[in-house]
Amino acid sequence: MQIYKFGGASVKDAEGVRNLANTLKSVGYKNTLIIVSAMGKTTNAMEKVISNYFDARHELNSSVQEVKKYHNHILLDLFENETHDVFENIDSLFQKLLQFFDHNKSPDYNFVYDQVIAFGELISTSIISHYLNSIGLTNSWLDVRNYIKTDDYYRSAKVNWNQTQELISKKVDTSKLNITQGFIGSNSNNFTTTLGREGSDYTAAIFAFCLNAKSVTIWKDVPGVLNADPRYFENAELLSQISYTEAIELSYYGASVIHPKTLQPLQRKEIPLLVKSFLNPENDGSVVGKDLELTPKIPCYILKQNQTLISVSSLDLRLLIISSNLDKKLIFVNLSSSKQLTVPLWHTGPFGKTLISNVSLSQSIIIVTSCKKLPLVSPFVQILFLERLKKVTRPVLFVIFNASSFIYPSIRT
Questions:
Q1: Distance from C-alpha of 60 to C-alpha of 54, rounded to nearest angstrom
Q2: Which mean pLDDT values do the consecutive 10-residue runs of the chain (413 residues) have?
Q3: Architecture of domain 2-213 in CATH?
Q4: Looking at the chain, which residues constitute the CATH 3.40.1160.10 domain(s)?
Q5: What pTM was estimated for this model as a whole?
């Protein structure tokens, strides 16, 4: 059994759906379960629908119609015959969405969010399932809410692994091509829950774990796992293989290719994770697995934008708690103590004033810079650390915080 996951970008239009079908034909689809996200930016559009339900009820129907118009455009491009069952199927889903709004009595935003947002995945998988059947790729459409059971923590539900394992093991016919939704599940009362934003990768890992799949493949619009985000760094390179440990560290520091929760169940059963391009499905992509040596042996870079650096010195860092309500996405706190091997090192060069701090335990280098434009970490950074990292046994991970401000409070604890 193999698990394929296609994200929203891969099925954002009719051409993307056709490409999904061509990918299956190219790489094979026997004994395969496909996880699909909502199409394109549908999740964002559905969030607008939810916002209108609470704050602009007069705009609710028009926002729903916008979502329906988007999907109808894809339908008309994929199916010549407007009497095809898929049109009635999708119309029925939108009717259920409107009925929910008419009958809902709960003021709980999180509850409403989960009941509504899931329609994006239900609609996308219904369209794709019908299309695949129409071109001869016979498949079974599964409602994932009948398989993944969770607690009642809406918008970030925790999986009931025992119940989920039992349902998936008993009810999924692994001899068929199956298609189902990512990101969603249901609780004991059969209300829809979600696993957290970008949780479709996690759904793939859940099914892989429960079915003892031979592999999970995440199809992306990039060649695989890169050592840097090509949107911000020039000459980003493909990592052909990487260990679970390295991948978890990348996720921890903010790499967006692999969802952090995805790796844990896969690692427990040593199920390989492949990250490949849906634009070039024949290419090898990247493999994440047990004890794989990072190949090629090059540094990795992660950029975090619009940060604030707070430098704090303390006599006893064990007693130090920092809290702030500054309007920033994240605050990076640089703690200087005798337990650290180095104190902050500043460099003023062609890329602006830069703080460099060596975190030796994780063999990671934290760089906080106020510069506006970043090359793929500049040569001066690598030169500065060349002599300091002689004991490092693997390539270093550079985490770059693009700081909008630097704060130097005088704090003693």
A1: 9
A2: 96 98 95 97 97 97 98 97 96 98 97 98 98 98 98 96 97 96 97 89 97 97 89 88 88 73 93 95 95 90 67 48 38 41 38 41 47 44 42 55 49 41
A3: 3-Layer(aba) Sandwich (3.40)
A4: 2-213
A5: 0.81
